[in-house]
Design a protein that fits this description.
Number of helices: 13
Strand content: 15-25%
Number of domains: 1
CATH superfamily: FAD/NAD(P)-binding domain
CATH topology: FAD/NAD(P)-binding domain
Radius of gyration: 27 Å
């Protein structure tokens, strides 16, 4: 199933009547930030009976939450083996189970009756940039047997039948993962939160927070709010009210584009209709609107107009799928996410009555949903599973130097991925040529009547006739690596 994507300007046109906080207010819980995490907390807490106020400095989903591809699957940005090494097998299993709960939360919300056109469809394919068949087997076994996750291993031939490119080798298919129209989902989430009783105030930046005492005080430009609990879900945009927290996140801007309609040739080259991502985290794409390709790839640690990266998206598509030719990119969008140093989200209680839900860069929609459920239930039910995230403390991201280092690491990672992929494809071509040469030599031997026979002990093998050898030698060619 494909969905119709609504452009960001059209979405914003319906938000001109958004409500600002212009009067003093009391609430049980104040959530700062109306992105995926903040709205998930507001919805869950309101459904559990709490009075909730959400303060958003701009408008709902204005940043990364409203500009993402909408792929939902279990897991975290930190690779599973690294997670096990960091916190142990049993705790890693519990965190993985929580990430699956987050994915099911999104599925349930996306199925609500007031989310028309959400375009929920099942199946996500993760493809490898290198020939990693041996590692694939052990990973499949671990996910299936130890982490109770349904996955399928795809051999190279099956991957290339679905995706007409030599860039990808093996794949891992998640049949229960899914995708939604991410830009519609965040507004549907806000509508559900309002219907449950949460009050959402936009164009209401937070000037200061006093988190001392039983009733915390939050100051905005035109009003004050008091609450027993505060949840900081503003990601890198918390600014002055919690500068130290925002400095633990490395801001990374990720950009995506949507092509013009490509017709039937798109389906001939990309037969897999759902989300595809590579295991190096470089590319992420899927078909939308029937015959348009939505592609996410470039990222920077500095802000820029998304339109600047249309050429980069177009070149990336041509690199992976040269048969598509020079496609036209008609829409660009993007937003900033906060990346943590340790690669895990920041979820938990900073001090009594003050909570954090941030650091969801590269984490996926399941983690922000998981944080919403967990924090709301921790506040209202005393659920302490958030302590599983305690080993992942707040770590300073390095400021301006951290951004430079992050950009260099990103460039190095993409270059390493390209080099590893080129080497893997070169080796694959070399193996094919060796097999072809052996086949030609065998055929030449048969034609010359010199089929291999068992030699007597100590006898030297008879060389093939010169004519047969010459017939088996391939024409000279250039073996340089192409990318």
């Amino acid at each position: 199933m494909s969905e119709t994507f609504t452009s960001v300007p059209q979405q914003e046109a319906g938000l001109r009547d958004r409500m600002r906080l212009s009067f003093d207010l009391d609430a049980d819980i104040c959530v700062i930030g109306a992105g995926l995490a903040g709205l998930s907390i507001a919805l869950e807490a309101a459904r559990l009976g709490a009075s909730v106020a959400v303060l958003e400095g701009r408008h709902i989903g204005w940043n990364a939450s409203g500009n993402q591809l909408g792929t939902v699957m279990p897991g975290f940005a930190l690779p599973l083996n690294d997670l096990i090494e960091r916190i142990g097998f049993e705790d890693a299993r519990e965190l993985w189970a929580l990430s699956k709960e987050g994915a099911e939360f999104v599925r349930a919300i996306a199925s609500e009756e007031n989310m028309p056109g959400i375009g929920l469809s099942a199946g996500v394919l993760e493809v490898s940039n290198v020939d990693a068949g041996d590692r694939l087997i052990s990973r499949l076994q671990m996910l299936n047997e130890d982490f109770d996750t349904e996955v399928e291993g795809w051999q190279v031939d099956r991957v290339r039948e679905a995706l007409k490119t030599e860039h990808y080798f093996h794949g891992v298919y998640y049949p229960k993962a899914f995708q939604v129209d991410g830009r519609k989902y965040v507004h549907g989430l806000a509508a559900l939160a309002r219907r449950a009783g949460a009050r959402i105030f936009e164009d209401t930046p937070v000037v200061s927070i006093d988190h001392s005492g039983i009733r915390k005080r939050i100051v905005t430009p035109s009003a004050r709010l008091r609450a027993s609990q505060i949840v900081l879900a503003g990601n890198i945009h918390l600014g002055a009210p919690s500068k130290r927290l925002s400095e633990t996140l490395l801001p990374v801007w990720r950009y995506a584009g949507v092509t013009a309609p490509l017709g039937e040739r798109l389906h001939e080259i990309i037969a897999f209709k759902e989300s595809v991502m590579d295991s190096d985290g470089v590319d992420h794409f899927r078909i939308v609107d029937g015959d348009r390709l939505m592609w996410e790839s470039p990222e920077t640690t500095w802000a820029a107009r998304p339109q600047r990266f249309a050429g980069a998206v177009r070149r990336r598509i041509r690199t992976i799928f040269p048969e598509l030719g020079n496609v036209e990119v008609t829409e660009m969008f993007g937003g900033a996410t906060g990346h943590t140093v340790h690669g895990m989200p920041q979820i938990g209680q900073l001090r009594k009555g003050l909570w954090v839900a941030s650091g969801f860069g590269r984490q996926g929609m399941n983690t922000s949903a998981m944080a919403g459920q967990m924090i709301a239930r921790s506040i209202l039910w005393g659920d302490e599973r958030w302590k599983l995230f305690s080993p992942f403390e707040l770590v300073w991201a390095g400021g301006a130097a951290g951004r430079v280092a992050g950009q260099l690491v990103g460039i190095w990672g993409r270059a390493s991925s390209a080099a590893a992929g080129a080497l893997a494809r070169y080796r694959e071509r070399a193996r094919v040529k060796d097999r072809q040469r052996e086949a030609r030599l065998a055929e030449a031997n048969r034609a010359a009547g010199t089929s291999p026979r068992r030699a007597a002990p100590g006898a030297r093998p008879r060389p093939a006739p010169k004519a047969a050898v010459e017939a088996a030698e391939p024409v000279a060619h250039d073996d340089r690596v192409s990318q």
